[in-house]
Amino acid sequence: MRHIVIVGILVIPTTLLTYLGLSASSLMPLEGSAQALIVDQMWNWDMIAIAFLFSVIVVPLAYSLIVFRRRKGDTSDGVHDEGNIKLEVTWTIIPLLLVTFYAYLGAYTLGETRTPDPNAWVVNVTAHQWAWAFQYPEGFSSTELHLPEHKQVLLKMTSLDVIHSFWVPEFRVKQDVLPGRTTELRLTPIALGSFKVRCAELCGLSHAYMEAPVLVTSPADYDAWAQQQATAFNALLAKGGPDAGKAFVAQNGCAGCHSIDGTRMTGPTWRGLFGSEVPLSDGKTVKADDAYLTESIKDPNAKIVAGFPANVMPKFDLTDQQIKSIVSYIETLK
Ligand code: CUA
Fold first, then answer.
1. pLDDT category, 120, cuts 50, 70, 90?
2. Which atom of ligand 1 is nearest to the CA of 202?
3. Do 156 and 124 touch, CB atoms closer than 8 A?
4. What is the mean pLDDT of residues 108-116?
5. How far is the centre of ligand 1, averaged over its atoms, from the C-alpha of 198 (Å)?
6. Pocket residues: Cβ below 6 A from ligand 1
7. What pLDDT does 301 receive?
């Protein structure tokens, strides 16, 4: 009994020191959203549990190593104990209560992070191998996510191909992005600055590079940026031609799979593509003219280029006008 009391007393300062050490080592990045504050409260409780469990294992272990070590000349066997009902009931009931408490805490925290704000604004997010695109309520799209501070945004997300996952560590919350379904994530940025969306679901070759910039600005700065983007986008649509095509290509992340310098990537290079004879996987060839390129953008699996995989390129949400501009841009890549 004496030993149990001593170990019990030693566990308290060890827990406290471990907890303080963990807290001081700032394991989490900046708290960038209102949701992060909620998640970090739970994380704090988790660290208390971690510190306690660490101590409750390490202190008896260290104590036993010192106090119960074999004395010199002692070759007798150790004491043989045959079970202990009290002990077993205790170490079943206490962890059960703790696990129940933490399960409740997890569910409660998840609920809190999803609290809807009726004034939330909506950004549509499209993920594909291996880029992010953001469609704004003002009608333009961008590969950058700009968010005004202190305003809840509802992200409506979908994938054009495989499962991806939207994750900005500073915002803490994370959500899978699925093909053929829309998933939602609510964020209320509370810190100005630039962050990064990462993909948190292994989604193929360039998964590790599937990032996009996130900029949290003042509402006035956001409005100015959105205005400028919307004006530029509408001007591009009206203008058409190769320059507009180049901009649409950048906005949709086409360069993730198609090079313009002849480098072989996931998809065929665009250099020298226009007007060339393209060998197809079924042995035929096709001339890369307007009709072929338009079809390949609208229905990527209609004709598969020999040596390239099928079912890789997603169908992009582009208007005929945009596709026409993109084709005219490809035409210029000699
Ligand atoms: Cu997309 Cu990993």
1. very high
2. 2
3. yes
4. 93
5. 8
6. 130, 164, 199, 201-203, 207, 210
7. 86
Q: Which two tokens stand for residue 122?
A: 């909506």
247-250 long-range contacts, CB within 8 A, separation 24+: 248/318, 248/322, 248/325, 248/326, 248/329, 249/326, 249/329, 250/143
Measure the CA–CA gap between 281 and 285, rounded to whole angstroms: 9
Assess contact for 50 and 21: CB atoms under 8 A.
Answer: no
Query: 195: which strand partners?
Result: 214
Q: What pTM did the predictor assign?
A: 0.73
Stretch 18-33: mean pLDDT: 90
Percent of the chain with pLDDT over 90: 59
Cβ atoms of 174 and 113 within 8 Å: the answer is no
Tokens of 154: 């509802």
In the numeric block, which tokens belong to residue 237?
């649509």
* CB atoms near residue 181 (< 10 Å): 11
Q: Report the separation in Å between the CA atom of 101 and the middle of ligand 1, taken as the mean of its atom positions.
A: 34
177 and 157 Cβ atoms separated by less than 8 Å:
yes
Which amino acid is present at 107? A
